[in-house]
TrEMBL record:
Keyword Metal-binding: no
Protein name: LuxR family transcriptional regulator
HTH merR-type domain span: 41-105
Organism field: Rhizobium sophoriradicis
Alphabetical list of Gene3D superfamilies matching this protein: 1.10.1660.10, Winged helix-like DNA-binding domain superfamily/Winged helix DNA-binding domain
GO MF annotation list: DNA binding; DNA-binding transcription factor activity
Amino acid sequence: MPDGSKRLFAAAGFASEARSKYRFLPSAALPPDLPEGPVPIADMANAFGVTHRTLHFYEEKGLISANRIGLMRVYGQDDVMRMAVITVCRETGMPIAVIQELMDELRKADSQEGAEAMFREALQVRRRELTAEMSTLHRQLQQVGDLLDYDGSSETQPLNDNQDSSSLTPQEKRCLELMAEGYSTQRIARALDLKHDETRDLEAGIILKFRANNRFQAIAKAVLLGIVQA
């Protein structure tokens, strides 16, 4: 590579490093065979198995940043390391908003041990969410099975009455909106600054008001009534 190009690559790498506010990041496996200097966008996409569009999306969300050498987009080694963490999070199904929260927290890490602890806590929260989702799926499967086995011999119970939003407290309304956005009980608790048990009771009260069997039925009825938007 000509000396001028080497200097440009080095400058791009330093610029990316200067923009990075992360002192420590949790350990995550890096793709093999990536160059040590700035990584062109094509190599970055191939290494992590994503599209250029995905990388642009991550840039828009402030998760990674890119430099330019002429017309070529390149990423520094700090971006590669962040991308490795992001990839692990995405593989667990973490929403982008949660990953953004985690990366913001990691900016505050003052040691490698602290960064690892933050990452483990995020993974533990995700495990609890997946466990809750599995429980919900089992209940839904059971309900589908019951509906398929239903022979129609008994009188069909009507759907609930015209429940309106005036019967909901402001806290219940906000909780219902977060439920409709797909927030788990754990995330709703954080958003409303409540304990997990308090949030669970709040959700149960909402479900009861809509005369529903679960949160999904309550959300569906609320959407049909125009109380929340899907």
